[in-house]
Design goal:
The protein is α+β, with helices and mostly antiparallel strands. It is built from 14 helices and 20 strands. It has helices at residues 66-74, 106-119, 147-157, 170-179, 226-237, 260-265, 268-271, 277-289, 293-304, 308-324, 345-351, 353-370, 390-399, 413-422; strands at residues 9-14, 18-24, 29-31, 44-45, 47-57, 60-64, 79-83, 97-99, 102-104, 131-136, 165-169, 186-193, 198-205, 214-222, 247-250, 253-256, 327-334, 337-344, 379-383, 405-406. The protein starts with 8 loop residues before the first strand and ends in a 10-residue tail after the last helix.
């Protein structure tokens, strides 16, 4: 960290899509940049790439962040690319994944990820400060999400850091960051739109100079965010080309191809893990028995040739394009699948309409817990990448006056605020 005083605290926003680190010496917070060829500034992609190498861990070498992407692109058929693994942190349905015949638990992924995160920080994280604050969602993503299980896995993930970890709601971190912009007492609603979850915090911000600047009033969340919106695009544009809705013969019956394969394919955290012998053998059997075998053949080709990352990037590009234009083109070509079709913002908004209703219901739940009506909110702060989607912004424009809505630091505000919380007299006071 630059500056005269050593950092007292570190804030880590370990996100589904990106990870950001900030440090603080009690005089504000500073982002930690990552260094080296291929670095992307202060944003570190939450991704891992594995390949077989004798000198690696358990016979497998790995990279993380933008370097994981570079390794994958250099040799996609000889590597395994894993992203969005945070989304299984609270899932009792996930135990471990098999990569090159080795078993990896969530905490294994997490520890290896953190090791590379530290390594690529060019010495800035070699000596960790005494206080470490890690963000966590209000509600975890996934079916039957178990917060206690996620806590156990996080504790094992961070065990090598040798520090007590304070886990703080991510939108509360964003509230601390935004409070620095406020010059009067304010009742603040923070909406954090991540990759896996959407979270809300209602916070009372005292006047500058107060002994306790932020006082949480309520929080609520839902396991819906950017990855779910990506999944809707995949479901409507890609899966019909891969056999969804198709039929296959089983003895003398015609049955619909099981939907589980398509659910896994549309989930970025599970797509890479489909490249295993059992799943591919099952798909080849379905291909032999399918009324139209070509679509299943396309799915097999995409899985075998590790096309998950380019597919993910194409979906992200069209989603971002629809944030600034009423129409865009979805373009993807790889291993037997070629798509070049127009997509309108109206189409996209229709696909995510149910998700938007659940997000708005989570906001209402936060306000109800705080016993506040929308007109009692002085300021709304929107953060996270999906906050840029016009349909998301429209939810708040309907409920709050435009001059009460603020944005900015979509990818960095949480880390800034978590580092500030670490410099409070008792960071544990903010922990969940």
């Amino acid at each position: 960290m630059d500056g005269d005083a050593p950092p007292m605290a570190l804030g880590l926003d370990f996100g589904t899509t990106n990870t950001v680190v900030a440090t603080s010496a009690g005089d504000g917070s500073r982002l930690v940049p990552f260094a080296g060829e291929g670095a992307t500034g202060e944003i570190f992609r939450s991704a891992l790439c594995f390949w077989e190498e004798e000198r690696g861990w358990n016979g497998i070498a790995h990279e993380a962040g933008p370097w994981a992407i570079a390794e994958y692109l250099q040799s996609p058929l000889d590597s395994r690319f894993v992203q969005s693994f945070k989304s299984v942190a609270a899932s009792p349905l996930f135990d471990r994944a098999q990569i090159f015949g080795r078993s990896f638990r969530f905490e294994d992924f997490g520890r290896l990820f953190l090791q590379k995160l530290v390594r690529h920080a060019a010495g800035r994280l070699d000596t960790l400060p005494p206080q470490i604050v890690v963000g966590r969602p209000v509600e975890y993503a996934g079916a039957r999400a178990d917060a206690a299980l996620a806590r156990e896995r996080y504790d094992r993930m961070f065990a090598e850091w040798g520090r007590e970890i304070h886990y703080v709601y991510e939108p509360l971190g964003a509230a601390f960051s935004h409070a620095a912009r406020l010059d009067r007492p304010t009742t603040l609603l923070v909406a954090d739109f991540g990759g896996g979850t959407t979270d809300f915090s209602v916070v009372h911000v005292a006047a500058p100079g107060a002994a306790r600047r932020c006082r949480p009033l309520a929080a609520a969340g839902v396991g819906i965010a950017g990855d779910r919106f990506d999944k809707r695009i995949v479901d409507h544009l890609i899966l019909p080309l891969l056999g969804k809705g198709g039929m296959y013969r089983s003895f003398d019956k015609l049955l619909e191809i099981p939907g589980g394969y398509f659910s896994e394919f549309a989930d970025w955290s599970r797509l890479a893990l489909m490249r295993n012998r059992r799943t591919l053998d099952e798909l080849r059997k379905l291909q032999r028995d399918a009324i139209d075998p070509a679509p299943i053949g396309r799915m097999i080709a995409l899985i075998e040739h590790e096309q998950g990352f380019p597919l993910y990037e194409a979906v992200g590009r069209v989603k971002r394009a629809l944030s600034s234009a009423a129409e865009a083109r979805f373009v993807f070509a790889g291993d037997g699948v070629a798509i070049d079709v127009p997509v309108t913002r109206r189409d996209f908004e229709d696909w995510i309409a149910d998700d938007l209703r659940r997000i708005e219901a989570a906001m209402d739940a936060a306000l109800a817990k705080a016993q506040l009506a929308p007109d009692a909110i002085d300021r709304v702060f929107l953060t996270g990448g999906s906050s840029l989607i016009p349909a998301i912004r429209a939810i708040f424009d309907r409920r709050f006056a435009p001059d009460r809505i603020a944005t900015g630091g979509e990818l960095t505000s949480i880390a800034h605020g978590l580092a500030l919380i670490g410099c409070e007299a008792d960071p544990a006071e903010w922990s969940v």
